Amino acid sequence: MDIATLQVKMRDAFRVEATDLLAELDSSMLELESRPQDADLLNRVFRAIHTIKGSGATAGFNEMAAFTHHVEELFDEARMGRLIITHEMIDLALQAKDLIGQLLESGNPGELESTCAQVVEALAKFLPESVKPSSRSQLNAGSAISQRQRHKIFFKPHAQVFFSGTDPINLVDELCTLGNAKVTGQIKRIPSLENLNPEQCYLAWNIELVSSQPIAKVKEVFLFVEDESEIKIESRLEPAPGETAKADPLADFLNIAGQSLEALDGFLSHLRASKESDRDCCKNYLRILKTFQAAAYRQDQQEAAALLEEQIHLLEPSITIGGSLSDESKGLLEEGFQQLAALIKSLREHQPFGSRLEVPSILQADTASAPAVDVPRKEPVRVAPSIRVDQDKLDRLIQSAGQLLVARNAFPILAKKLALEHGLSGMGKEVKDAGDHISRIAEDLQAAVMSIRMMPIRTVFQRFPRLVRDIGRAQGKEVELLLEGEDTELDKTVIEQIADPLVHLVRNAADHGIEPPDVREQAGKPRTGKVTLKAYNQANNVVIEVVDDGRGMDPARLKQKALEKGLITASAAAALDDRSALELIFLPGLSTAEQVTGISGRGVGMDVVRSNISQLHGTTTLESRLGGGSKITITLPASLMVSKGILVEAKGEEYVFPIESVVQMVRLERDRIHSHEQAHFATYRNEVFPVLRLADHFACAGQLPATSWPVEVPLAIVQTNKGRTGIAVDRFIGQVEVIVKPMGREFAEIAAFQGTTIMGDGRVALVINPAGFI
Amino acid sequence: MAKTIMVVDDSSSMRQMVNFALASAGYEVVEAADGADALAKSGVQKVDLFITDLNMPNMNGIELTRQLRAAAAYRFTPIVLLTTESQQEKKTEGKAAGATGWVVKPFQVEQLLAVVKKVCP
Known about the structure:
Chain A is of the alpha+beta class and about 775 residues long. Chain A has 25 helices and 22 strands. Chain A is about 45% helix and about 20% strand. Chain A is flat. Chain B has helices at about 10-25, 35-45, 60-70, 90-95, 110-120, and strands spanning about 5-10, 30, 50-55, 80-85, 100-105.
């Protein structure tokens, strides 16, 4: 495998993981927003970002990794307790997260450079000075070939060197590859055999190496052992080794102090401005005080620590008890702040000059002062082992399992044939029994196989907290999103296609539905609006509801709009009851929002939503109460591949109704069907609905429409977007398993059919799409 | 016989990438998702070199190093840590636990192979 192929494979492998990580980040960052000090959460976010950066750079996404580095720094600082995550930071981090996704997909990351630079700049504002200069590692040792040098090297490994998994002779061998080497072993420390401990290293070496490799290369050989071993290298042209500046602990403390003061100042002015004390603000204040104090203790800055202690005492009761902060307390806080500021100022002025240097990199800040952060040992979530499978393979398997299910329908037919046509009823029964057995296995197999394709709707739902939050923040609304039934499973194809329509609906709910807090308050509602997204199973269907408790839709307004846009006539509008008027929203080109907002767009959505759902053989219905909110219900078949159907006969042809579409099958007495000219209606259970005759609808050449009804009419009552309709057939044959194959391209235009299916006996039947012809 | 290298990292793509790189150089590669997994798998199969991440759930790289050093079979087996530039103190801690060396992430394939060759020629 050459390097280029390797790179491609690496990039692919990384993209797969990064997609998962980014999705996880979306939800964990939002969680972090509500619990900014949750250490586990901070670690989780950090680790995800860290992996994206590290693995990404290795996979060759250099721009992305360089950018991600800045985001990582933010969370690293937070994780170390040096800064506190705010709403603004989450805003920015989410934006950055999106950019990372774009950088991964983009063929030309250069074009995102300016956007990235803006985010980096904004991020830098949150970062303490010490982190800002980007700290690159020192590992890029110059590879330029320098002049030949003679190195005299003495190498005496640590006696316990074997326990670090190092075999020192390997290092000596490696040195020899750098040039011409003369190696002399020092064996004088080897004890007599009875005293020799075979797990200890007694040897040392003198090596004279003539090499044109730079000195860095020579030193690199000992990279892993240089701390514990005795190594001396003398070169003819000895370059001065750059001694890295040790971080000064005082400088570091002053750094933290500076940041803390700045943050405290911000919160103080906030406290001053607000009449009642903001509890969150106090909490953040307290947290900074504590971090500050911890740093003070570490540096033995007792005076600062004592001052901070007073303030902590002052603040703590108001948080634990929840009482408001008195003006007197506020004054004391101010006073304490001034004292602290003065103290830090004087410390800074007396700081020895040498240590006033900026702390050069995050590395040193870490070693100098950061408390060791324990890596959590246990992750509560154990993920079941899984494998990724090529989708084609899976589809083949599903197809076969589905065909098996249909093929087993041949057994009862065969059994019947044996019994009736050949007089072998005993044989027939045996065939039937065998068929039943195979049938059960086929069902199990099919269920197992189908479950592979099923995915929890969580994958779609998880994007909504972010969406709703963004809308809320952009519009100054308070919106709470409730998710229910995230584990409800749907076919993968449906999951993929349901996302866009749902985004639209949730947007509408948050953007148009939920009122601004003040408006809500005036209407006697809680300030925070609620959007509920709910999924659950119902028979063979999955139902998804998008409910908001916002302003609801006004049927009169909808009529008005539709009239203005010339979508309906005045007389049609007058004839519409409220319920039907709500249906107008599904007309193309109708927008209800007074103003088109950037978020919900132009109201072209609802008709598109409904037609998208229809393509998935689902239905969309709307309920709304003016002032009380709206509820949109989407009903979808849980699985697209194999489904149950009702086989019916009309004028000698067999048709299949998908079982999801059939609400009920009844035999209705003739006198309950009323005809008016060519239109027919049925009354059933206090409901009136139109009736169609399937045979008429698909009238074959030469057939005349039937003129009379039989005594009992077999009626399949189907539910579509337009409500209920009865479809009259000649005979119900029974329930069948079908794999719906889409119609050939030539027939794709015929909306009345979902496709075709092959019956157990090999004949083909048409599968009806009721929504397509009613 | 090809040397067997165990790659321990909770990032599946990182594991795969290291795997590809090592496999391209003719090594046998075993993957493990965390320290605990690595420890369990190392009992089944003789490993000639461990390459492990530090920050992992269940058992981190430092603890894994400690545990491996405590096992008779791996007292002297090279263990390479995958670190990032911001983990200087972890390197020190790792060395104290008995790690042989480290590779700084992100790495080039050649860098990784050079380190592997260095500790396990």
